[in-house]
Amino acid sequence: MATSLLASLFFTFWALLISPAISLTCSSQKFTKNQVYSNCLDLPSLASYLHFTYDPSNTTLSVAFISTPSKPGGWISWAINPNATGMAGSQALVAYKNSTTGVAVVHTFDISSYSSIVPKDLSFEVPDKTAETRSDGSLAIFATIKVPANLAAKGTINQVWQVGPGVGEGGMLERHDFAAANLHSKGTLDLKNGQSSTNSGGDTTVKKKNIHGILNTVSWGILFPLGAMIARYIRSFESADPAWFYLHVFCQISAYAIGVAGWGTGLKLGSESSGITYSGHRYIGIALFVLATVQIFALFLRPKKDHKLRFYWNIYHHSFGYAILVLGIINVFKGFNILKPEHKWKSAYMIVIIAMGGISLLLEAITWIVVLKRKSRKSTKPYDGYNNAQSNQQPLAM
Length: 398
Hints:
The relative contact order is 0.11. The longest helix is centred in the C-terminal third of the chain and has 37 residues, at about 345-380. A 7-stranded antiparallel beta sheet has the order 7-6-5-4-10-11-12. Strands 1-2-3-9-8 form a 5-stranded antiparallel beta sheet, with no helix packed on it. Strand 6 (about 105-115) and strand 7 (about 115-120) form a beta hairpin. It is elongated. By secondary structure, the protein is an alpha+beta fold. Residues about 15-25 and about 385-398 have low confidence and may be disordered. The protein has helices spanning about 1-25, 150-155, 180-185, 200-235, 245-270, 280-295, 310-340, 345-380, 385-395; strands spanning about 40, 50-55, 60-65, 75-80, 90-95, 105-115, 115-120, 130-135, 140-145, 155-165, 185-190, 195-200. The protein has 2 domains: about 25-195, Sandwich (Immunoglobulin-like); about 205-370, Four Helix Bundle (Hemerythrin (Met), subunit A) (Up-down Bundle). This is Cytochrome b561 and DOMON domain-containing protein. It holds the Pfam family DUF568.
């Protein structure tokens, strides 16, 4: 029973891990008014998507931009920069939910510089623009844009997209984060071929961060706790011996190997991100690596059950194990706050942790029942003077 519960938990986690990646693509997105666009792109950062149709006969660009604000009540933005590749100088469409009506609205902003972000008509015509709130909490911007003649002649435009935490009084936008995903949310949009190119360096960094996050979530956040659950609960069943031990060792060694790979990618990211330091996340990561390395040696230093040092080995092994379990889960959530992935990823992990906690409580109760019944059977055995005498004398023999 316990093994089947843990197995179902493991496969549930992978289903949750894979399903968001399958569903969150632009090709699977639908619109309430059934709008159809010739092209769609999964933009490389901030979990954002662009649908567009370009009509070269009248240089009209129809777009639908979808993203999720960094916090509830925040904003999303898609912009064209006529003269540069960054945010400064861009002409932006910004959407957010009106705090009074709760209806999504879209406004135009002229971002002449980072210190000057004001509502203003754009330098090109936008004959139609609307916004809507989607069922998953994201926002969508719909707009028809008259592409300036010089950009239409080139066939490409510089696009910039962004998400922010909130909107102040008078529609003033609160400053967005300056994490790597925010800084690399820009690229060149090919209007004729329906393609987008981005800064390859920024794209590579985001991929490394995603790999780092996945490796560490699976190792410190899933496999280590799963191995601890196996050691604590499965071994209580006599029929599971010695299978529980090999399952425990397999989980912990696999977790350590994956965790070391994740730790290595973290060191690499740190060396490539001068001036960007996440001290708490970094120090906990170092502590986890040290504790787990010492813990692995427990496998080779494990005394026999009747050895006088086994009691002290148990204290060392259990204390290090629980420290790794707690620190690992804490650091996974710190990583989520740094990376800021699509909200569904964090929700999926929280579901897994809650499920593991619930299963642990259930197995804890079952384990105590099994142990107490076993002790009860032993205490009700018929008196055997010879065997009892032997058992009474055994401690003296040690």
